[in-house]
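Form P-L/3: holo structure prediction, ligand 4'-phosphopantetheine.
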Amino acid sequence: MCEKVAVYPGTFDPITNGHISVVNRGLKIFDKIIIAILINPQKRPLFSVEERIMMIKESLKDKPNIEVDSYDGLLVDYVARKNTNVILKGLRAMSDFEYEFQMALMNRKLNREIQSVFLMTDYKWFYISSTIIKEAARFGADIEGLVPPIVCKKLKEKFNY
Ligand code: PNS
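OUTPUT (holo model):
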């Protein structure tokens, strides 16, 4: 049987327990998940691509069938280069829906072979985003339990607390 591979794209600046929840759910459906970080010169990320890759690898080191990679350019071209046709994305509250719907339709317009699949994060992580984690950490908030331990450590180093 042919291996079913999904690409889980994003900024992952940094990876949170919400992302981990989507990966865990995805692994129940797909044989392999490629976590792909967009190299986006327009955004000013807190962590370098190398730091983000390291944190993802460390957070998921016990999980089989995970690849961590980066890409630039169009997502659909990257997915095709990886010889697959599935984009995996996470959905939290309704507020994610409009943006994700727009992206999925645009991606379908660009390549009709590629399917977007959405999985809901665990309800525990509904309110969590990389942005809100960074905001809280910047002001020294306790973010333990919301992100993997390596991310907690790196955020504390970045913001000196
Ligand atoms: O975690 P994010 O920031 O919501 O992820 C968005 C991401 C990186 C998946 C998306 O912006 C992306 O893949 N951009 C690359 C360019 C692209 O293909 N855009 C969509 C069609 S124009």
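COMMENT: The longest helix spans residues 95-110.
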